[in-house]
Design a protein that fits this description.
The structure holds 2 protein chains of 2 kinds. Chain A contains 4 helices and no strands. Chain A is an all-alpha fold. By secondary structure, chain B is an all-alpha fold. The chains are: A mainly alpha, B mainly alpha.
Chain lengths: 121, 421
């Protein structure tokens, strides 16, 4: 049963080993001469000031909206995958069930579209 | 599982990994040479014959470079991001059959690392996890450009993941399975005795959808917004150097190889081809690897070709293409495929030809309706926007810049990707 996953485990060991060895080799082989200028964040030649941590910096709220819309439509994709495999067995019943679901989804999609949820300005 | 099974499994896994690393190294070199030809330059030609070892030299050089740790980084995530990115890229190809099958004794083996029933869903899962590497790299760098680049990348990747998923679902419905080996087996016959029964013929739109989304997922031109060097320096990799940079680079290019391979598996019959009576032998299996490599190289060339030809999309156009064109048309295509499959199943064998006619009619209908919806929306929307603006602020007239922008978006609607004259 678990033997089925053996090749995947082997591949993971090889891949992870490759990455780990590469990073370790680099830390042994490369020079280490840090200085304050070298360690400064890159801002196209402008010396970064003492402003707040850029990780707490602001970016457009649109990205949160995209993330939320993605979750909605990804859930729909999760429904579609198992449905796709058993469609032939369940026949037209499955088709019409999904057709109703997709129609409802299109309704909300149309709503998002008209409310400007997909506009980038 | 005895020693023979174990030995052959290890050999296949190591062989597959080596094949992918080799293909990636060759692709990096090949891309530089081909883009150079397209831009009437020479490209790397010094190390090895035709400069073929350039990638090896570059990789080795990066190991001897200083691994700079910038001041504002979050150390743990900064370190984890390249590992996650590269490891995930190297795991994605596990489900792809890269050669035929052969028998040793009485047991049959296929040149494929892992053949689970979830099959190509694995590719989707891995590309979802790949987003973590990007968002962690962008966030942990403690710098402005990587943060913006990381957020942009994430938004782009999750948007196109939907389109990619819909392209996959259409094929799953058509074949009736998610398993890579069954998808390949379903494409082994011929249409009308001479054309290979590849999924690309009945599923042409799914192919366009999937390949377009794959380019965006691999963040390649014309969808390479995360690395728009004119705006974002190098996006989320700006603060990385040395071997960590090499890992991102490797993962990214390996993604191109993997996406080409997935396209071949789904739509172009994978490793199938004429075997000249070598079925079941190791030579026959390796001949399958040869066919697979040739088909994959064609799509890798398309990636390079697009990079040499198309200008980068504007960010809002990119998101529009994913959300307003690929997503609704993809959903419609999935439903049309389902209907056609069921009609084919319920009809008699002699009536399948009628079904084929219906496929064609549905295709034409969807394309007409899609084009019509796009055109009417492109014309209707700017007018309504003006109406709303007038309601909110009666005194404000739309400025000339806004009018120009609306004009641009009106033209943009249906034809997002255009080859410059």
């Amino acid at each position: 049963m678990l033997a089925e996953y053996l090749p995947l485990l082997l591949l993971f060991i090889i891949a992870f080993g490759f990455v780990a060895v590469s990073l370790a080799a680099s830390s042994f082989l490369g020079p280490k001469n840090p200085n304050p200028t070298k360690r400064a964040a890159y801002e196209s030649g402008i010396i970064p000031g003492d402003e707040t941590d850029p990780r707490l910096g602001r970016f457009s709220v649109k990205f949160y909206l995209v993330a939320m819309l993605f979750i909605i439509f990804d859930i729909e994709a999760i429904f579609l995958h198992p449905w796709a495999t058993v469609l032939r067995d369940l026949g037209w019943f499955a088709f019409w069930s999904m057709a109703i679901f997709v129609a409802l989804l299109f309704e909300s999609y149309y709503y998002i579209l008209r409310r400007g949820g997909l506009e980038w300005e | 599982m005895d020693l023979q099974d174990f030995g052959i499994t290890v050999a296949i896994v190591v062989g597959g990994f080596a094949l992918w690393i080799l293909a990636t190294a060759l692709f990096i070199w090949g891309e530089r040479r081909m883009v150079a030809k397209m831009q009437t330059r020479i490209g790397p030609n010094r190390i090895g014959p035709l400069g073929i070892l350039q990638t090896v030299a570059d990789g080795a050089k990066l190991f001897f470079k200083e691994d700079i740790l910038p001041k504002g980084v979050d150390k743990v995530t900064y370190f984890v991001a390249p590992i996650a990115s590269a490891t995930v890229a190297m795991l994605t190809f596990a489900v792809i059959p890269f050669g035929g099958s052969f028998t040793v004794g009485d047991r049959e083996y296929t040149l494929q690392i892992w053949d689970p029933e979830i099959g190509l869903l694995w590719v989707l899962a891995m590309s979802s996890i790949g987003v973590y590497g990007i968002v962690l790299a962008g966030w942990s760098s403690g710098s402005k450009y990587p943060l913006l680049g990381g957020v942009r990348s994430t938004a782009q990747m999750i948007s196109y993941e939907l389109a990619m998923g819909l392209g996959l679902v259409s094929v799953f419905i058509w074949v009736g399975s998610l398993q890579a080996s069954e998808i390949v087996a379903a494409q082994s016959g011929t249409f009308f005795g001479s054309i290979p029964a590849w999924n690309v013929f009945p599923q042409l739109f799914a192919f366009i959808l999937f390949f377009g989304a794959a380019i965006a997922e691999a963040q390649r031109p014309p969808f390479d917004l995360p690395e728009a060097e004119g705006e974002l320096v190098a996006g989320f990799i700006t603060e990385y150097s040395g071997a960590k940079f090499a890992m991102f680079f490797l993962g990214e290019f390996m993604q191109v190889v993997t996406m080409s391979a997935v396209t071949v598996t789904l739509f172009f019959g994978g490793p199938s081809g004429p075997l000249f009576g070598l079925e079941g032998t190791l030579a026959g299996a390796l001949l399958g690897t040869f066919y697979f490599a040739v088909k994959t190289f064609v799509f890798m060339f398309v990636f390079v070709w697009l990079r040499g030809t198309l200008p980068r999309l504007r960010y809002d156009r990119l998101m529009d293409l994913g959300w307003k064109v690929f997503l609704p048309l993809g959903l419609l295509w999935v439903m049309a495929t389902a209907a056609v499959v069921l009609i084919q199943d319920t009809l008699e064998q002699a009536q399948v030809l009628t079904g084929a006619g219906i496929i064609l009619a549905a295709l034409v209908l969807i394309l007409i309706v899609g084009a019509f919806i796009d055109r009417s929306r492109g014309e209707a929307e700017p007018a309504e926007d003006e109406g709303e603006e007038a309601e909110d602020e009666p005194l404000a007239l739309p400025s000339s810049a806004e009018t120009a922008r609306e004009g641009a978006s009106r033209h943009g609607g249906a034809r997002q990707v255009r080859v410059p004259k």
